Each structure stands twice: as structure tokens, then as C-alpha cells.
Amino acid sequence: MRREKVKVQGERWFPSEKSFSDEMRDLWGNWYCDSETGKLRAVLMHRPGREIEGMTAETVEKYRFRGVIDPEKARREHDKLTEVYRDKGVEVHYVENQRIDRPNAMFMRDLMLMTPEGAILSRPAVSSRRGEEKAVAEKFIKLGVPVIKTINGEGFFEGANAMWIDRETVILGTGSRTNEAGAHQVERELRSIGVTEIIRTPVPYGSIHLDGFMNMVDKRKLAVFPWHLAYDTAELLMNKGIELIEVTNIEEIKNGMALNFIVLEPGKIVMPAGCPDSKAVFESHQIEVIEVELSELLKGWGAVHCMTAFLRRDTAIS
């Protein structure tokens, strides 16, 4: 008796059981951040272009600059900052093709938040900055950085209102630049990739982002302007073993952007020059300080931290 060959029905494709994070490096690239202090490996920046040229008193008011900016001086300062990064082995990637009517586009930190599984693309709060994120998305495509969330609907969120404490903990601030709808979207996405504790905190009148009054300076050390830090937030952080370093020179914090620094590696920071009192506080806590001259760029009310978006950091082991 001849047996009929049995035909196997079905589409015969079987799903991979690997997680996104297991495959990310091979399929997308080596992009990762779960810390503000792990060794910095790669950053995203925008060298000021045509958008800062031809400023007038009228445009200064519209875009909230302190004064008319000198384009060439601003670019030299920006180049000096990127030179520091490269000297320390940090890859610098530039966002190009930015709109020429967006002079704040140099402040890259606001436009994204890097996570262990890709970037959250911001939606700026003010209309004069909306659209900057499109050029960031284009750069992500070129680099192979996955976008795990784009803030949408009625939400708005700027990346400087989120701060990593460790792989399981993120501070998330709400205020004039991040509303509840935006924060909710960010929180939901972070929880989906393993963040278990979201510390919500208000961003007070007088600040627009977390880096106006707090910034991680070492693995378990947080520099703070104490009069803007909510007590409940401070208590939660101290209970987690975070040492709060109080920086109190108001002139340096508000006009010199003393807390607007970047950690190159645990215990080593790059900060704006011209803040001697704050520098002395950091050094008294065994923090190595590298200063950069940013007097022209400061006219845009931003400094080192504002201009630098993380693409890759080593994880900071506590």
C-alpha cells in the first residue's frame, strides 16, 4: 500500500523568544543609558547654525535669550566643549538639517531621553521649539537609535525633566515644560522596560527643568539647590542612600548655571566657568572639575547639561 505524503499546514514561522534588549546591540547599535554618572561614551549635540544668526532685540524676547548672541563666539565655545568630550574619548554625533527659525535647537537635552532600550522623543512645551525634534528623529534613523516612544496627544515633555538615579529609579519632574499627560506617557514607557520606582517631583516657579536645581554628581551624590527641592523628594532620595550636596550661591546657580554640568565618569564633571563657590563645594566632596567658557552660549539660558543628550553611558554600579 502506498502511503500519501502528509502536507504540513500553517505558515511555519516561529517567533523569537529573545527580548528587545537582548537583540538591541546586534540589530540597532550600542546605545544605552540608565545613569547620569556612568562613564560617558557617546552624545548627541547640535552645533549652532544659521538659526542663531541675525538675532535682534525682538527675537531675543521671542526666544527668551538674555541678549543678542554672537554666532561665531558661540560656535567657538560649543567647539571647545565638544573638544573636551573627544579628548575624554566621547563620541560626538551632530544633529543636522535643523530648522533655521529655532535658535534654541542647540539645547539637545530637552529633545530626548535615552534609556536602556532606545530613546524617548520629546514634545517641547513651547511653540517656538516645536519641530526641533523632527531633525533629532532623522538623526536617530541614520545612527540606528530606536525610538521607543514619541510624546503625543495633549502631552508635552522635555528630556531635562527626567533624571536617572539607577537602573530601577528615575526622577520625573512636572511643571511648565512637562505636563501630567506627558509625564504619564514617559512613566508608562519606563515601567515597561524595568524601571520600578518613579519619583515624581514638582519643578517650581523659577525653574523649568530639573537641572536648574538638581544634578547627579557621582553615583550616590546629588548636587541640589535646597530652596527649590521638595522635602518629600529629598526624603525619598536620602532614604535610598543618596547624599545631598547643597549648592547655595544663587547668582552662580541662576546666572552662571552652576548645576548645569555633565558627569564624564563618577566623580568627574564638566561645568561652566565662572562659578568659583560652587566649584569649591564640588571639590570639597572629592569631585574633579573641568571648566569650560560658555559666556556667549549662556545667553540662551542653558549650559553644558542643556546642550548634551546622552546616547551611551556605561551603567553606574552602586
Automatic annotation (TrEMBL):
It comes from the Bacteria. Keywords: Transferase. SUPFAM superfamilies: Pentein. The keyword Transferase applies. One of its GO terms (molecular function) is arginine deiminase activity. One of its GO terms (biological process) is L-arginine deiminase pathway. PANTHER family: ARGININE DEIMINASE (PTHR47271). This is Amidinotransferase. It comes from Alkalicoccus saliphilus.
